Amino acid sequence: MENAPFIHVTAVVDNGSKIGNGTKIWHFSHVMPNAEIGQNCNIGQNVYIDNHSRIGNNVKIQNNVSVYSHVIIEDDCFLGPSMVFTNVINPRAFIERKHEFRTTLVQKGATIGANATILCGIKLGSYCMIGAGAVVTKNVPDFALMVGNPAIQIGWVSKNGHRLHFTEEINHIKLNHENINIEETNQSDAFIVHSKKTTPDNNDPLQMAVCPETKEYYVLLNGKVEILNV
């Protein structure tokens, strides 16, 4: 069949699993019966995909990763080599806790660096970036850049993975966004962007950044980042 999944001869794919067209599963990997893998994914060497895990389209999973039960990975995510998921918060060898599995959600476009550890029951926001070796213990916002043990946020990244540098002034810009106004400054072709939902306790200007690769504009408001339609 054209564009059928490729499964290496050493891989084990159990009956009942669902694998999308164009997906490649490489050496010594194991896909359990109730796992779901989308289209055009690349599953590296020695990867384990557990029952009741779901993987979207265009996901890249590098070598030596285990995707355990109740882990959900949305489209376009990248899982670096030897990164670790968990699904029980307080495991003991002598206590059966399969009924206590917690769902972990990795949202669209997220990147998890090599050897990072993701504690169970949390959400990694869309297009966030988890640095190599980080230990993530709580929810991560969209576009957040996280590093360290325990992981802390040190900045923001664009969809294309570039560091975003936010400022209150951007030159040569026209904006279309429901929550902002534009105020001219005394500098030629410069603007300060303010929230339309300003209150006495919240009158700070919005901050903006530009992705150096795509030239897309991003806005930071109330601790959240989103892409602007310009």
Whole-number mean pLDDT: 88
Number of extended strands: 29
Secondary-structure element sequence? Answer: EEEEEEEEEEEEEEEEEEEEEEEEEEEEE
Q: What is the CA-based Rg, rounded?
A: 21 Å
User: If you consult CATH, what is the topology of the largest domain?
Assistant: UDP N-Acetylglucosamine Acyltransferase, domain 1
Task: Just name the CATH architecture of the largest domain.
Answer: 3 Solenoid
Question: Strand order across the biggest sheet?
Answer: 1-4-7-10-13-16-19-21-22-23
Shape, per Cα inertia axes = globular
Number of helices: 0
Walkthrough of the structure:
The protein has strands spanning 6-7, 12-13, 18-19, 24-25, 30-31, 36-37, 42-43, 48-49, 54-55, 60-61, 66-67, 71-73, 78-79, 84-85, 104-106, 111-112, 117-118, 123-124, 129-130, 135-136, 144-147, 152-157, 163-164, 169-171, 180-184, 190-195, 207-210, 217-221, 224-227. It is mostly beta strands. It folds into two domains: 6-157, UDP N-Acetylglucosamine Acyltransferase, domain 1, CATH 2.160.10.10; 164-227, no CATH class. The strands form six sheets. Strands 1-4-7-10-13-16-19-21-22-23 form a ten-stranded mixed beta sheet, with no helix packed on it. Strands 3-6-9-12-15-18 form a six-stranded parallel beta sheet, with no helix packed on it. A four-stranded parallel beta sheet has the order 2-5-8-11, with no helix packed on it.
Descriptive tags:
single chain; about 230 residues; mainly beta; UDP N-Acetylglucosamine Acyltransferase, domain 1; 2 domains; 10-stranded mixed β-sheet; 6-stranded parallel β-sheet; about 0% helix; globular
